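Weekly modeling sync, notes
Attendees: AB, CL, MP (scribe)

Item 1: holo prediction request
CL wants a bound-state model with adenosine-5'-triphosphate before deciding which constructs to order. AB pointed out that an apo prediction alone won't tell us much about the pocket. Agreed to run with the ligand included and paste results into these notes for async review.

Input as submitted:
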Amino acid sequence: MMLKVRNLIKDYKTGFFRKKVRVLHDVSFSVNEGEIYGFVGPNGAGKTTTFKAVLGFCSITGGSIEIMGKPLGDAELRRHIGYLPENPYFYDYLTGEELLRYMGGLHGISGGQLQKRVEGLLEKVGMSKDRRVQLRNYSKGMLQRIGLAQALINDGDFLILDEPMSGLDPIGQREINDLILEQKREGKTILLSSHILYNVEALCDRVGVIIKGRVVKEGELGELLKEIQTDYELLLDGVDESIRERLDGLDITLENKAGMVALRFNEDIKPAVLQRVMELKADIVSLQPRRKSLEELFVEETMKS
Ligand SMILES: Nc1ncnc2c1ncn2[C@@H]1O[C@H](COP(=O)(O)OP(=O)(O)OP(=O)(O)O)[C@@H](O)[C@H]1O
Ligand SMILES: [Mg+2]
């Protein structure tokens, strides 16, 4: 197991009176070796804070964190971790190449080895051409790519990527997506956060959903999606809205859609709805599961909490 986080609690003290604010209430999840783990949740849920705690960048109030079976604080661990921060670019007067050299230096890499590593990474992320441009003149996509390169500078086994796709156009997202998959193929373990559901779907083996500082769902992506794949949409032709009366007693919503009628309902009444529709001799155009987005799930879960 690469990472095991158990019942993590984090309080911040804010403001003049150092008022205590609990940001992480109960965060438990684990990342297996060699997998891509997606940490998803709405803004302010505590993703970045959890990552910072895992990296040892902030103290924790309670709970435990183990990386590769070792408790946090083991100095050896830092060598094995690559990190793409959410807002990484304090040093925006540096060029892309200088940033990589600087970060390599922090990891104790130097001389010919550093040169080789920097060349290779600039090539890998497609930034060789713009290596001498200052970061402040990079586009968002270029920043994300150079950011990923600096996360790879120490060739760590464990990559922690905070919103690696944020602000990228579809092509940029796909490029980062491919780079991350390539890292997985090379045997790395990846923990990433993202709001972008289809990226998470394309990439992640397992997912944790964090809401208001609590991990409310965790598991294999397929299982999680199955869970939220409960609604169906049945498209009918040759009927009008008066069909509602004849479906009386069934919990459906009804909408006009391109001259047809769409019925939406839950899994458990699917047989009843289909039977009734058959009896009414309505023309069935399609029956499709409606996958709720994770965002929808977040809203649901947030309402609950
Ligand atoms: N240094 C800090 N002091 C006080 N509160 C903080 C601090 N850092 C974060 N917070 C609060 O902790 C909560 C969680 O923030 P965090 O950045 O972890 O969320 P996130 O899930 O990464 O959100 P986003 O999707 O917007 O990046 C927020 O309410 C934030 O205001
Ligand atoms: Mg964040």
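Recorded for review: The chain has a mean pLDDT of 89.
Action items: CL to compare against the apo run; MP to circulate these notes.
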